[in-house]
Amino acid sequence: MDVMNHQQAEREAELMQANREELVERIGRALREDGTVQLLQGLHLSRCSLPLKPVHSVLEPSVCVIAQGSKEVLLGDSRYRYDPSQYLLATVELPRVSQVLEASKERPYLSLRLELAPTLVSSVLVEAGHSSPPGHADVRAIAVSPLDGNLLDAFVRLVRLLDSPAEARVLLPLITREIIYRLLMGEQGGRLRHLALQGGYTPHIARAVGRLRQDFDQPLHIEELARELGMSVSGFHHHFKAVTAMSPLQFQKRLRLQEARRLMLGEDLDAASAAYRVGYHDASHFNREYKSLFGVPPMRDVQRLREEALAFPSR
User: 48, 58 in Cβ contact below 8 A?
Assistant: First the structure.
C-alpha cells in the first residue's frame, strides 16, 4: 500500500510540474510583450520582464494565479506574497498595492486573473448544495492558499481555450464554474461563500464599498452610511476594517488619490484641478496625503511615471 501511495504521489507531482510548465508556455506565447490583456471574457493575462515598483490599483473579486515569478499584494497593513505554488483570492472590490518581485527577460513574470461574478458564485453554490458556510470563515477580502493539482489543471484547460475561440464559447463558462466549485470546496471556500451569501456582515460591507467607489468625491458621512446598512457606527467601523483592512476614511482616501493620479496622467490635469475633481478643497492637504501614499509630490510623481512609460513603452 505504501508503494502504491508513493507511486500515486509521484505521478501527481509529475502532472503538476507538467501543468506548471504548460501554463508558462501558453501564457508566454499568448502575451509576447509586457502588459496586461483580456483575451477571453473575464480572463486577464499579465507579463512583466523586470521587477516593478509598487502599483496602486483597484481589484475586483477575482482569483489570481502566477505561472512564473512572484508578487506581493498590500491590503492596508497586511502583506500577501505568492508564487506559482499558491493562488490569491479577492472577494471584495477594493484598492490595493501590488508589486512584481521576481521577473527577468529570461524568466518573465507571467500570471492570470479570473474575475468572479457574485451571481455566478451564487449559482455554483446553490448547484453544489451548500446554502450556508460551515462554521466561522475569515472575512478578510484577500488571502493566499496553496494551489492544488485539480485547481491547477482547471486553469491550464482554461488557458488552452486561447487557441480555440470556437471551443471557448462553450467551454469557458463550464471551466469557470468548475474553478469556482473547486475554490468553494477548498481552503478559502468559507470566504468565497461570503461573496455570494446574504447572511453575515460581508454583503453589507460590499454595499458600503460600492457606495464609496461611486461617491468617493463626496463628503463621507459615516453615521448616515451605517444607518442605511442597519449597523451601529462602531460595528460598521469594525466590520469594514475586518473585510478591507482599512477604515472607511482610509479607503475613501485611497480611491480619491488613485483617481487623482489617473486624472493627472490621463487627462493632463494639474494637481490643484485633480484634487478638486476628487473631492479635496485644500490643495496643500491633497499634496501631503498624495506624498504620504505615493512617496513624492503629485507633479513629480506624474513626471516620473511618464518618463518610465517612455523608457519602457511595452510595459
Answer: no
- Copy the grid coordinates of residue 269: 490635469
Beta-carbon count within 10 A of 79 CB = 11
CB within 8 A of 309, min separation 6: which ones? 315
How many angstroms separate the CA atoms of 216 and 235, rounded? 21
* Closest-CA residue to 258 (of 80, 52, 94): 94
pLDDT tens for the chain, 315 residues: list them.
576 677 787 888 899 899 999 999 999 999 999 999 999 999 999 999 999 888 888 888 899 999 999 999 988 778 999 999 999 999 888 888 899 999 999 999 999 999 998 888 888 887 777 544 444 456 678 899 999 999 999 999 999 999 998 899 999 999 999 999 999 999 888 888 876 664 445 667 878 888 888 898 999 999 999 998 889 999 899 888 877 878 999 989 999 999 999 999 889 999 999 999 999 999 999 999 999 988 899 999 988 888 876 665 544
Please give the Cα distance from 294 to 302 (Å, whole number).
10
Separation in Å, CA 112 to CA 38, 63, 146, 165, 294: 10, 8, 16, 18, 26
User: Greatest CA span in the chain, whole angstroms?
Assistant: 73
What's the chain's Rg over C-alpha atoms? 21
Indicate the angle between helix axes 189-196 and 118-128, nearest 10 degrees: 120
CB atoms within 10 A of CB 15: 13
In angstroms, the CA 1 to CA 55 distance is 50
Alpha carbons 279 and 214: distance in angstroms, whole number: 13
- Strand pairing category for 109-115 and 43-48: antiparallel
Contacts of 70 (CB under 8 A, 6+ apart): 81, 82, 83, 100, 101, 102, 109
Determine the number of helices (DSSP H) and then strands (DSSP E) in the chain: 12, 10
